[in-house]
Amino acid sequence: MKEQNEKILEIAERIRALRDILEIPAQDMAKATGVSVKRYEELERGERDFSFTFLYQCANCFGVDIAEI
To answer: What is the spatial distance between Cα 68 and Cα 56, in angstroms, rounded to a whole number?
Structure first.
């Protein structure tokens, strides 16, 4: 379980870093991924596990392959 939580935190950090680099507001990412701003922020902090759809939509917003996330 600890290893899984570490992976979630690593992915969350990559999402946050890409969003910061691209200067995309959290509100815009929440809308693009179909979640509330609160839920998006929880996901970005690694407090929740990600669905494939969420990761796919993030990758599309960032213009990267999902494997890069």
So the answer is: 11
